[in-house]
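Work Package 3 (structural annotation) set out to generate three-dimensional models for the target panel prioritized at the project kickoff. During this period the team completed the workflow that converts sequence records into C-alpha cells, so that structures can be stored uniformly alongside our sequence database. As a representative example, we reproduce one entry of 217 residues exactly as it appears in the project archive.
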Amino acid sequence: MKQSIAIDGPAGAGKSTVAKRIAQILNIPYLDTGAMYRTVAVAAKRHGIDFADEDAIARLVGMIDVRVRHEDGVQHMLLDGDDVTGELRTEEISQGASLVSRVPAVRDRMTELQREVAHETRVVMDGRDICTNVLPDTPYKFFVTASAEERANRRVKQLLESGQPADYETILHDIIRRDKQDTERAYKPLFCGEDTKKIDTTDLTIEEAVNAILSEV
C-alpha cells in the first residue's frame, strides 16, 4: 500500500475541493470515492430500484460493472461501460448515494475498488470511511468538516451559480438528514478516528484548508 492521503468528512464540507487541490499540487491522482457510491445510485435509478431497498441494492451491486477513468486530470465514472459522470451531482442522486452506501455489500465492493487504486499508485482519496476503513494504515489521515449552516450556504451558492433553483431551508434539512444517515448507519459509519487530524473549514478559505493539510504531509 502506497502512503496515500486519506480525507473523510460530511457532505458539503469542502473535502473534495481540498483533495483535488492537494492532488494537483503534489501531482498525484485524486480519487473521488463518493462518485462511486453515486454511480451505484444511478444504477439503482436506472433499474427502477428504491434506494432504501437494501436487499435489491445488494443484488444489484454484484451485477453491475463500476470503473474509474481519468482523462486530463478529470475523474469519469463508468457504469457498465457508459460514462455517467454528468448524472452524479443531482440532489436525488446525492440522497440515493447516502442510502445505498449503508448496504454492506456496496461498501465492501467499493472498498475493494478503492484499495485496488491505492495499491497501484499513491493517491489523494476522499470519502466517508477512507481513514477508518479503506486506508487505515496511511499516516496521512484528515477529517474535513464545517457547520451544517455553512455547508448549506455553500450548496445554495453552488446551485445558483450553475443556474439551478436552491432553497436554503430545504438544503439545510437535507444536509442534517444525510449527516444522520452517514454517522448512524450500522456498517462502517462516518466518524473522526483518534489518529485523524480534524480540519474545520467553517471559517477557512480553500487555500487555508489545503495549507493546513500540506503542512502535516
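The CA atoms of residues 42 and 93 lie 7 Å apart.
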